[in-house]
## 1
Amino acid sequence: MQARQRIEAEIAASGGWISFARYMQLALHEPGVGYYASGARKFGAGGDFVTAPEFGSLFGRTLARELRPFDRILEIGAGSGALADVLADGREYLILETSADLIRRQKEKLGNRVQHVQHLPAGFHGAVIANEVVDAIPAHVVHWTDGGILERGVATGLQWADRPATGELLDAARAIEVPLPYLSEIGLQARAWMRTVVEALAQGAVFVIDYGFPRHEYYHPQRATGTLMCHYRHQAHADPFARPGEEDVTTHVDFSALAEAAHAAGGEILGYATQAQFLVNCGITDVLGEANAENALHYAPIASEAQKLLSPAEMGELFKVLAVGKGMDRLTGFTRGDRRASL
Ligand SMILES: C[S@@+](CC[C@H](N)C(=O)[O-])C[C@H]1O[C@@H](n2cnc3c(N)ncnc32)[C@H](O)[C@@H]1O
């Protein structure tokens, strides 16, 4: 069965309407038909998007400097395994991945250098990394109107349809101040995910790296149509119903919400910075220097990689790093330009 039929069947069985979060769950993660769960190419030049670890090893080699003190790493949502390929250097490296297709690809690439786990290990000591994972966690869509707060879901024929918001979503939407009318997303499941990850951590740090903003920027009056974005063959567009199961559907991350959830679960906010600032603090220029010394010919591609990772016009500003920990000392990645006060 195709994703579209599977989703239509569920809408029909649910009385003609499902939440957008449920739609996103089915379109991305439903075994057999979801975009991540099925065999779509996804990553790299021949796929739909390129993540930082896919550009080359510079991102991983720089992050590795921050991760030196940790003798165990848990990567959540490891994609093609490109980051693990750089970071799994003999120490214990665990991967928690929901997609059966990607687990297979990761095992092919990484063999016994990594160990796959099916659940978050309780009482975990070490570093947890989630790069571009939270943007793929299903989000709810909310429509704030003069007539009240509505939840925007999906009706038969894959069309938007509003209903009064209720329960936890209504409470979360009421807590956000926006000019009316206003449309945006609320990541209830992302908050729950963050709580669960921090609860599982006994000692160490969680690094969430993704595109997003603190709450006051996320729900800015000028961002009145939300942050929903789809990625198909390196083109971004905003219609999540165009190719269900065949393309990535994402929302930006509300880092204030994640920080609150982490704090409520007993985590300490260790830092929040742009990706550029974080990588500079970790010593990306030293890593570039090493590459230059190794081989001048090798330098041009790695310099172009640095440009993509650091430039404000590319990933440098939009991507952020949030670190949360328990029983941790200061991290090098936040020694300058820590913006946690903006969360
Ligand atoms: C956009 S990809 C990023 C992959 C990789 N981290 C990278 O940077 O290239 C999202 C990854 O997260 C996985 N994923 C999504 N939700 C997840 C969840 N709740 N738990 C674990 N993995 C998840 C997907 O299957 C996929 O491997």
## 2
Amino acid sequence: MDTEFGILKTGKEADVFLLERAVPGAESCLLAAKRYRSAEHRLFHRAASYTEGRRGRDSRENRAVRVKSGFGRQIEASRWAEAEFVTLKRLWAAGVRVPYPVQVDGREILMEFIDQGDQAAPRLANCDPSPEQLRWLWAQLVEAMIRLGAQQLAHGDLSPFNVLVKGMDGPEPELVIIDVPQVLDLVSNPNGVTYLHRDCRNMADWFVRRGLDVDAEVLLAEVLSAAW
Ligand SMILES: Nc1ncnc2c1ncn2[C@@H]1O[C@H](COP(=O)(O)OP(=O)(O)OP(=O)(O)O)[C@@H](O)[C@H]1O
Ligand SMILES: [Mg+2]
């Protein structure tokens, strides 16, 4: 049985809820439910450049999405959910630290709740790491981006707002990458490297502002050499 504990965060495209899943005879666990809004309730629309080069099924569904009928808007929300779920599975399998994906149902994904004690883990943007923690977090970021690159993928919307940090009270906090529906293919997407470059700058700039001597261009070169 699932019990909803209320909203964790309202984002631009989706709301995230905390959910308790109780299975008879087993321990209950907390999950995060990300529910995509249908298009008319979205505050943000992704540029088509994200999905350029993606192969789509040409179907009644595609036409409905193109003409933006009510039916089309529902489908669009569930496609983003489906895309995020499939990507989470792929990244998890590739050893990139993302929330473990549990299930997808229509426009909602259930995944591991990234916690900090009994609360949600903070976003990197809201953390104030010590110099040692900063180096440790950067090392994990580089590793995660190289693993993505080795899959010929780039996050495409990476920033300190789409990275959670678990265990900021200890010496070795864990960095978890979230919000992956727009992950893009570096080979087939003509804008892939441009997005990757922006991801590198968003992240490196934050670490530089916190006092770490790192370079976005060096990071980009490392990720690209893992990809080709
Ligand atoms: N698995 C999770 N565990 C804990 N918190 C989460 C999880 N997934 C998302 N969150 C929280 O919900 C927020 C929104 O999630 P996400 O970034 O995936 O959605 P979004 O709609 O793209 O939001 P935004 O517009 O802020 O980018 C995150 O910043 C984070 O604080
Ligand atoms: Mg986000």
